[in-house]
Amino acid sequence: MARILHTGDTHIGFRQYGLEERREDFAKAFLQVVHLAIEERVDAVIHAGDLFEDRLPGAEDLQATLQGLFQLKNAHIKFLGIVGNHEQRRGVQWLDLFASLDLAVHLTLQPYDLKGIPIYGLDFAGRRELEPPRCDGGVLVCHQLLDRVEPDGELSLKKLLNCGAKTVLLGDFHERQVWYEKGVLVTYCGSTERWAIDEQRRRSVNLIDLKTNRIDHRDLKTREFLYIGVDEDPIQRLKNADVEEKVVVIYLKGGRVTVAELEELGRQRGALAVRVRDLREGESEMEHQPDVQMDYGDVEHAISEALARRALSPLAREMDQIIRDFRIPDSNIDGEVTALLEGRR
Length: 345
Ligand SMILES: [Mn+2]
Known about the structure:
Purple Acid Phosphatase, chain A, domain 2, binds manganese (II) ion, single chain, 9 helices, 6-stranded mixed beta sheet
């Protein structure tokens, strides 16, 4: 038996809605996964990328991550991972740092042997069409979008099924998906906390026996979200439902209520946050234009995705990250970019 826990898209360090509580939630989800792995006595945790929200996690987040990795090590459970698009750095990857401390293995195309099964890994390789590598008789771990989940996904499921791998463990798409064709198992594990409000389904991790490809999953206990649909009265729901400490997501299609009123009512009732998707037409409030359903995070994400589709050099990509990093004040950008070009960064 070679039983593994497949997880990914943990996004530790994401301070969602600007809330410290949400930042902690993402780290807690990782620790929950670690505890589950220990409870299930798996041989390895396989992480399919995006362990971190970005390439500069804070000390609190590194502390939680290291805590989890040490717990796995003490339980003799291997942590095998690849690098996702969110955390990718130009030089040393965080995963390489953990590997140098003997806390992780950075999977590559030189297979790692897990109880006789070769495990291949491919770091995020951009948003251009991708030819899957040969992985005969083994497991391939990668962080990419399949054409089955995005029409212009860079990896074709058909080609993937013919690359020789018996099992393909994916990250990047945040909803759990399972395909089983021609004896090959292909699966996305999904994110471990709701990274975008449309990630409504319960978060979970995969448990897989690599010898038989038998797959199972375990649900995670994450921050509760209360969804209020377009055909419900949001005021009544906010008044009557238990919203304490929850993230309330409201979809609005009619009515005269303002977003500010809903946010205020939610706050009074003890909600952690209220997010409103205003789908009403004809309203002219600047920040809630009809059919423009974007959060600040969505815009950042959209820019990153668009850039990933271009053939930029790693250096150009890092320069872009410096410019868009809100923690680097505008007056320091010159210095930071110069330092980068001179190799001092
Ligand atoms: Mn992700």
